[in-house]
Design brief:
Elements (H helix, E strand, L loop, with lengths): L1 H36 L1 E5 L13 E5 L6 E5 L29 E2 L6 E2 L11 E6 L12 E5 L7 E8 L3 E6 L2 E6 L9 E2 L1 H5 L3 H4 L3 E2 L4 H7 L1 E5 L19 E3 L6 E4 H4 L1 E4 L2 E9 L30 E9 L5 E8 L2 E8 L3 E9 L5 E3 L5 E4 L9 E8 L2 E6 L2 E5 L9 H9 L7 E7 L2 E10 L25 E3 L1 E2 L7 E5 L28 E2 L3 E10 L21 E2 L2
Antiparallel strand pairs: 1-6, 2-3, 4-5, 6-33, 7-8, 7-33, 8-31, 9-10, 9-29, 10-12, 11-30, 13-28, 14-17, 15-16, 16-28, 17-27, 18-24, 18-28, 19-20, 19-27, 20-21, 21-22, 21-23, 24-25, 25-26, 31-32, 33-34
């Protein structure tokens, strides 16, 4: 009897082992199937999509203000010396061996960080073959084969789709969308856009990002909560807050809570404070990269797509706060009152600093009266030639295309006549109030790159004066053409700059494009950001930074 029980027990043990082995093999097979047909993991190779997606980089909390930011590995493709991430890297004047100091994007403190270990690039999950069933959408983040070698995988933001003409003007993307094959040759291409009928069928429009994408693309100019330790600054470059009051604006106190809260004592007449800073603050600088010389035009590449925001705390029922932004000659002024009245006004700059405000506001909205002592988020946004007033997380007033048309030709003329430094102001009147969490952000700004691989450095594809047409093949969609850009525009090798291509690409390939057959899929999740290091294994970031795991927008 005991012998039979032993045999029965052994049989069950063997059966359990067999089931475990079968389950393991099934899991392995499913993993291979999943990788081959559904989802695959990729490592971000460079910082062209920073700071949303990062290649090899360091991470810092600014020693002066505490702002957290990433600094990309300071190497160039032409360097003969490659940095070994297993060894600490020091600072130095030789860009590519030690590199320049990191510069905080918030307070501009130069961090000579000395020796530190770098992190590997973010690891992302990509939905493969998604675009066999769903058309690619502008602003998707896509992975594709680099057309220059047709082997390395690149990741960029999809900007232009087949059947479009693309042109970048003052940081924004303009496009013409033609859906009709006017000459009947089976493709929408340059001959169709040359047809006079295309002018009416495909007028120039501005590319506007979806709200969820725009929210992740804002980049810091200054967050007032991060006040620096002024003692750390050199005497040659002392710290001075960019927020300044006019001499007559005696109602403002900017020193509360260690300069983090702006208090207004009240006044019948509006009193203002202005963001006073070098115009370079509005240039497409990235803490992730240091450029010497700058990889943008210091005279023209000044971003006026801005977001000014704060928390408004009215201390009386008649408190009122306002926000003022400008873009070229256009000025926008929004007012939020404690009684719930919201107004958006427009004006045009005249001689000097005078603004001629329109007789009638561009929009108004009545909300429920604000509670005295309550906190209400307020933001004035100018982005992609549209202005919005946000209150409590909702758009309350928004300009229309008839009020503020996105005229590409006018944008070109404005830029050619000079780019003024944007005006950024806050003003208040009526009863007392407080402003908390005052932030100024800027949008991604696409620069006018040139073809670096061409001897005469001629204008890149899709930039101002050299629009690109993305061909759409009605009978051979694999040859359809796409246009991609990196969010880190001054340091991105993307569609603007591909002056040569791999000979293994199919005949008829056009430089500056990604053919449909080279698309791998859409990146949708960062599953392994730069990890934490264990005390005894500092060279290996083994623990993922769970707090930075995120969906890709």
């Amino acid at each position: 009897m005991a012998s039979a029980q032993s045999k029965d027990s052994l049989y069950h043990q063997l059966a359990g082992i067999r089931e475990s082995v079968e389950s393991l093999w099934i899991a392995i097979i499913l993993a291979f199937v999943l990788r081959a047909f559904i989802i695959e993991a990729f490592v971000i190779p460079t910082g062209s999509m920073a700071p949303r997606l990062m290649g090899q980089h360091w991470q810092f909390d600014c020693p002066a203000c505490g702002y957290h930011y990433a600094f990309g590995l300071p190497t160039r493709s032409t360097d003969s010396i490659n940095i070994d991430l297993s060894n600490p890297v020091g600072t130095g004047s030789n860009y590519g061996i030690g590199g320049p100091p990191a510069v905080c994007p918030n307070c501009l403190y130069r961090n000579n960080f000395g020796k530190d270990l770098a992190y590997n690039g973010d690891r992302v999950l990509v939905l493969k073959y998604l675009y066999r069933f769903k058309a690619p959408t502008p602003c998707d983040v896509v992975v594709f084969k680099n057309p220059q070698d047709n082997d390395q995988n690149f990741i960029k933001r999809l900007i232009g789709v087949p059947g479009q003409m693309i042109q970048i003007v003052h940081g924004d993307v303009y496009y013409r969308q033609l859906d009709t094959d006017l000459d009947g040759d089976g493709a929408i291409d340059g001959r169709d856009f040359a047809d006079s009928r295309s002018n009416e069928l495909a007028p120039w429009k501005i590319l506007r990002k979806p709200t969820h994408t725009q929210e992740v693309m804002w980049q810091v100019i200054f967050e007032n909560d991060y006040q620096p330790d002024v003692k750390l600054y050199e005497k040659a470059m002392p710290w001075k807050s960019p927020w300044q009051t006019a001499p007559a604006a005696t109602g403002w106190d900017l020193t509360a809570n260690d300069h983090r809260v702006f208090k207004f004592a009240g006044s019948p007449a509006p009193q203002s404070l202005a963001f006073v800073a070098d115009r370079n603050r509005f240039a497409p600088n990235y803490a992730y990269n240091i450029y010497s010389p700058p990889q943008y035009d210091v005279e023209h590449d000044i971003c006026s797509d801005l977001k000014l925001s704060f928390m408004f705390v009215p201390q009386s029922g008649d408190a009122r706060v306002g926000l003022h932004l400008s873009s070229f000659k256009h000025h926008f002024r929004a007012t939020v009152s404690a009684d719930g009245q919201c107004v958006l006004e427009h004006g045009l700059a005249a001689n000097g600093n005078t603004v001629q405000w329109d007789a009638q506001p561009w929009g108004s909205e009545s909300l429920e009266p604000l509670k005295v002592g309550g906190g209400y988020s307020v933001a004035l946004v100018h982005v992609d030639h549209m202005v919005q007033l946000w209150v409590d997380g909702k758009v309350r007033i928004q300009t229309t295309d008839s009020q503020y048309p996105a005229n590409m030709q006018q944008a070109i003329e404005d830029e050619m006549h000079g780019v003024p430094t944007p005006v950024v102001e806050i003003f208040a009147s009526g009863g007392p109030s407080e402003l908390w969490h005052v932030d100024l952000m800027r949008d991604v700004y696409y620069t006018q790159a040139r073809l670096a691989d061409i001897a005469d450095l001629k204008a890149g594809w899709g930039v101002m004066g050299n629009p690109i047409i993305l061909r759409k093949y009605l009978n051979n969609p694999d040859m359809d053409e796409f246009f991609v850009l990196g969010d880190n525009s001054p340091c991105s090798k993307d569609s603007r700059m591909w002056g040569y291509h791999s000979p293994t690409l199919r005949a008829g390939y056009q430089d500056g494009t990604v053919p449909r057959y080279s698309l791998i899929g859409r990146a949708f999740f960062v599953y392994w950001p730069g990890g934490f290091r264990l005390p005894l294994l500092e060279k290996l970031p083994l623990v993922p930074n769970v707090g930075r795991m995120r969906f890709i927008r």
